[in-house]
Design a protein that fits this description.
47% of the residues lie in helices and 26% in strands. It has 159 residues and is of the alpha+beta class. The chain folds into two domains: 53 residues; 81 residues, PH-domain like.
């Protein structure tokens, strides 16, 4: 697995507790999908066991990718921008210039709140340019949010 490595860039990683958030929410959704699949298959008098087995296989694959997917997420605060990287098979790295940031928001679902995590979302003038960093400890998310807002205000580009 090759990650983006840049000289003199200090990458920060998300909390390992985010693995718990992903596993719990993934198992909840998998249970809902399995139940829906069974209901549909029974009502249609189809091969309900085959569709259920397929959903279980998909669930196992998804669960097996949770740890590597979370380890691949990282961010770096640089002088002029914020870098965010992610991806296990398909790596991506996004640079968000501070002067182009329009909103910085923090989101916490019920499972996030239970384990003390938050997701930070940044958007730019482009509708397609929303970047998120999930799995940040609450204090770190608040500190980073405040820093990004402060820096973005001083470097606001003419939009």
């Amino acid at each position: 697995m090759t990650k983006f490595e840049l000289p003199r860039v200090q990458w920060h990683h998300i909390s390992p507790r985010h693995i718990t958030v992903e596993l719990v929410s993934g198992l909840i959704w998998l249970s809902i999908w399995i139940a829906a699949t069974v209901v549909i298959a029974v009502l249609a008098q189809g091969l309900w066991w085959l569709t259920t087995a397929w959903m279980i296989v998909v669930g196992i694959v998804q669960v097996s990718l949770v740890v590597p997917r979370n380890r691949a997420i990282g961010y770096a605060v640089r002088e002029d921008d914020l870098l965010v990287r992610r991806g296990v098979m398909f790596n991506s790295m996004t640079a968000v210039p501070y002067g182009r940031m329009q909103t910085v928001s923090m989101h916490r679902g019920p499972i996030d709140r239970m384990v003390g995590l938050a997701t930070l979302r940044m958007s730019t003038a482009s509708a397609a340019a929303t970047v998120s960093i999930p799995g940040l400890p609450l204090a770190e998310a608040e500190r980073l949010r405040d820093h990004l807002i402060r820096v973005a205000e001083t470097r606001r580009a003419g939009l």
